[in-house]
Design goal:
Structural class: alpha+beta
Largest sheet: 11 strands, mixed
Number of strands: 13
Number of domains: 2
Number of helices: 13
């Protein structure tokens, strides 16, 4: 039966190719969107979880979160260090971590902050030591991997967040003191130094980051609270009564995911529509197969084949098509994730993973098999009324 099913499939290559192509396209789209959505949700939640609030300059709350926590956007501006550090005295605040940036090295952001920032993401040293002096820096795992610098190497930063060689601070080089282990967070894609280094490197009249000994500025302040109510109360107070802006990362990330979810649902809808068309294509192909091969099927009955065996033959043909289409679609979906990951890595310094099939994809396979069974039964209805003697006589 397996051999006959295979021979029947390859005897109509165009019909077979069309059915497989439609199935492949639908599975490719569905698995691609499923993995992108799943990994993006995990990535955003994992990176925003360490902090309850971010305070920065007035502007877009989402931009503030994207720039200060996810490091994939430009900051809304700079804020006075003295002003935000007064917030530390608020009894509802448990801890504050200032962050400041404005420079990069070969496209990777140099972040000025405290070593507590590294600990918040659970990052530990792979080699070397943490930065303790001005112009010492530690590299995230991906930065060290891509730039291939060793502990003790020196480098100079360039002004701005985009790689350029024109505005390099040659007179104030940094020294790489350590490399962090991979964490799967934004830390992997950062070069981390202390705040003083960021201030000092811009001492000679920077238009965007002003800093004098009596009036230092930072990009943002990251906070954690003793309880969730404190975050809500302080957020309202800051946004209403000060020149600063407070944003809640979880709230802004949820809004972003809700917005992105519309696009994901649209693509999934297209994938499901293509899957239905693929199922219909398989169904029509099977009907044609049964109709055109009635003489062959009648001969099989004369050789002792039962109706159930004929049904099995039709089902195996459909199953071959479905499984080939599913496997191709899943494989090409993973290839697409790999290609997209390379683009995401260049633009957003974030890698997507190539994961093994998950439960949702297994359910998708069951749906395809169910469609195959249903199409086989409907297409094979005429086999129950097969008039062997009449068909052979007419032939």
């Amino acid at each position: 039966m397996l051999y006959l099913a295979f021979k029947n499939i390859i005897s109509k290559p165009l019909n077979t190719l069309l059915s497989i192509l439609l199935l492949t396209l639908s599975i490719l789209l569905a698995t691609f969107v499923l993995q992108i959505s799943k990994q993006l949700n995990h990535h955003l939640e994992k990176n925003s979880k360490p902090f309850d609030m971010v305070i920065g300059a007035k502007g877009s709350a989402l931009q503030l979160v994207l720039s200060a926590i996810l490091h994939i956007d430009n900051p809304t501006g700079n804020i006075s260090l003295d002003e935000v550090l007064r917030i530390r005295k608020n009894p509802m605040v448990r801890e504050v971590i200032p962050v400041s940036y404005g420079d990069n090295y070969r496209g990777y952001r140099i972040l000025g902050t405290s070593n507590e920032y590294v600990r918040k993401y659970g990052a530990t040293l792979k080699e070397g030591k943490l930065n303790t002096k001005n112009f010492e820096a530690i590299f995230g795992a991906e930065v060290a991997k891509k730039l291939k610098l060793s502990v003790g190497s020196s480098f100079v930063s360039s002004h701005g967040l985009i790689q350029n060689e024109i505005e390099a601070h040659d007179e104030k080089p940094f020294v790489m003191t350590g490399v962090l282990r991979p964490t799967g967070t934004v830390v992997d894609h950062l070069i981390i130094t202390n705040l003083e280094s960021v201030w000092e490197v811009h001492e000679h009249g920077d238009e965007h980051i002003e800093h004098h000994d009596e009036h230092k500025e930072i990009t943002a302040l990251l906070l954690n609270f003793r309880n969730p109510i404190g975050a809500l109360q302080l957020s309202r107070s800051i946004n209403k009564n000060t020149s600063l802006q407070a944003a809640l990362p979880k709230l802004e990330i949820d809004r972003l995911l809700k917005f992105l979810g519309i696009g994901f649902k649209a693509i999934n809808g297209i994938a499901m529509a293509i899957l239905l068309v693929a199922g219909l294509s398989v169904f029509i192909s099977l009907i044609k197969t049964v109709k055109e091969r009635k003489h062959e099927l009648a001969l099989l009955r004369t050789y002792g084949a039962t109706t159930f065996q004929l049904l099995t033959l039709v089902f195996l043909e459909a199953l071959f098509l479905s499984l080939i289409g599913f496997v191709f679609g899943w494989f090409l979906g993973r290839v697409s994730i790999l290609l997209f990951s390379n683009l995401a890595s260049d633009a957003y310094k974030y890698h997507l993973e190539i994961n093994a099939p998950d439960m949702q994809e297994f359910i998708m396979l069951l749906i395809v098999i169910f469609m195959t069974i249903l199409a086989s039964i409907l297409a094979s209805y005429s086999l129950f009324k097969l008039n062997v003697s009449k068909i052979l006589t007419d032939a």
